[in-house]
Amino acid sequence: TIYFNGSTSTSIVTYAGTYYPGIGFSNTSYLTWDGSNQEGGTGRNTTFILSNLTSSGSVFTFSNTFYDSVLNCVIQDSTYYPTMSGSGWTNYGLVLSAPSSSPTGASYNVFKNNWIRDTYYGIYNYGPSTGFNIANKFIGNTISRFTYAGIYNYYYTLNTLYQRNLIQSDTNAPLSYIYGIFNYCGSGGGTATYDG
Q1: Residue 127 and residue 19: Cα distance in Å, rounded?
Q2: What is the rounded CA–CA span in Å between residue 195 and residue 162?
Q3: What is the spatial distance between Cα 16 and Cα 98, in angstroms, rounded to a whole number?
Q4: What is the spatial order of strands in the sheet that 73-77 belongs to?
Q5: How far apart are the C-alpha atoms of 107 and 43, rounded to whole Å?
Q6: Spatial CA neighbour of 134 closest among 188, 69, 77, 195
Q7: Which residues contact 97 (CB under 8 A, 6 or more apart)?
Q8: Cα 120 vs. chain centroid, distance in angstroms?
Q9: pTM for the predicted model, two decimal places
Q10: Are 143 and 100 contacting, i.e. CB atoms less than 8 angstroms apart?
Q11: Per-residue pLDDT tens listing for the chain (196 residues)
Q12: What residues contact residue 196 under an 8 Å CB cut-off, 6+ apart?
């Protein structure tokens, strides 16, 4: 198990190109990135900012990961502005299984008490037919000022849990449609969504 903790207050600028993450988890298990500055804490003391985006990119991407976690972090894009239409760069907060020609699945991961903001997609859970995304958990996250979808659950995702996430869209975004949760073609047991 590898465990990362935040400091008193840390901002980490991440850089990304086409579909590449600022921080990528690939072929990992039991890795935890905790933005709190104390063990078992809930403070969001670490901020990840996606910067210098020249095409689609993400702050975090998980591919072929099992039992990894991201807790208590602020995850945001630096290119946000109040009237953005989403027609520019497509940016992602958290991506499970990167949208590429042959992605591999990400399963049994936990994302809890993060603030995901200023993105086109907040959470992008894309399950590939070659690997599936199984039983990932998104608990107590705040997703705000997104310009297309707060949560995008797509294709082969099994038994995903969304629990007590606060989803707030940007009322200034000029898109004619904005999705809090977009759930498409989930298979085999479906997706459990509880946001109360």
Answers
A1: 16
A2: 7
A3: 13
A4: 10-15, 46-51, 73-77, 115-117, 142-146, 166-169
A5: 26
A6: 188
A7: 62, 63, 103, 104, 105, 106, 125, 126, 127, 128, 131, 133
A8: 11
A9: 0.84
A10: no
A11: 455 655 545 555 544 444 455 788 888 899 988 888 888 889 988 888 776 655 667 788 888 899 999 999 998 876 665 555 444 456 888 989 865 656 678 999 999 999 998 888 899 998 887 778 899 999 999 999 888 889 998 888 888 888 899 998 766 655 667 888 888 776 555 566 665 5
A12: 164
The answer to whether the CB of 137 falls within 8 A of the CB of 96 is no
User: What phi and psi values does residue 172 have, to the nearest 5 degrees?
Assistant: -90, -10
Token output for 51: 């910067």
Tokens encoding 118: 């200023």
Tokens of 78: 């630096």
C-beta separation of 45 from 9 below 8 A:
yes
Taking the C-alpha atoms of residue 12 and residue 17, their distance in angstroms, rounded to an integer, is: 17
Tokens of 3: 């465990």
Name, in order, each residue with C-beta under 8 angstroms of 140's C-beta and a sequence gap of 6 or more: 112, 113, 163, 164, 165
